[in-house]
Amino acid sequence: MNKPRQKYIWISPKIRYSFLFLDLFYLATGLILLIVGVLWWEDLGNSLRNVIVTPNLLAGSIFVGGLVTFSFLLSAVGLFDPLRRKNFLIAYCVIVVCVIISLLCLGGVVWFSTLSERAHFGGEWTNNWSDSMKGLFQDELKCCGWQNVTTGFIPSSFCPTIEESMNKPGCLDPLVVHADDLLRNLFTTMFGFITADVFAFFACVILIQARNVEERYRKIDEKNGGGGDRALKYQFV
Description:
Blueprint: H1 13-42, H2 48-52, H3 55-80, H4 86-113, H5 117-128, H6 131-141, H7 172-224
């Protein structure tokens, strides 16, 4: 009695599931960038966070998050039928590389901004920020003036008059400390996301290589007129 012929499984389930897991992780990083960018964009105004996280940075975050989401859809189509939709997987790899470069640029901008915080915020306090914004910062950071009450002092709830605020610290150090913490968390998170992107990229490369091997064996069978999986069963992926 002949044994029933075993059906060939196209590509190793381990490769498919590993790629799917890493792809979902990659998608999660994009959704975080997209959602946080949109929420913070809607909250733009006179707040301490919004003078540290600029609209340009938020726009970059939203763009990269949208790019990640779009590339995930491409990968889903490619994963459903890798043999016939290789171009979707290749496009996914290209976009992942673009995402990695974009995150490197955004993270680099954030990191470089931490190197000149005192000079940057000093210029903003002196030349650009409105009196209402300065007063808001004084009340939020519990400080008065820039270096002290003699430089850039603005009357506010926490700093009613110069005489009553003489013993209160200036806003330079509290603002720089707050900005430094936020910016360091941002670029550390971005560089962490890059790690997930790199793993997703290599997982896709392995998937493409696996489907290439499968396609090769299929062509061998077609050439030999086997019309089955005689050559495919020797595939090592």
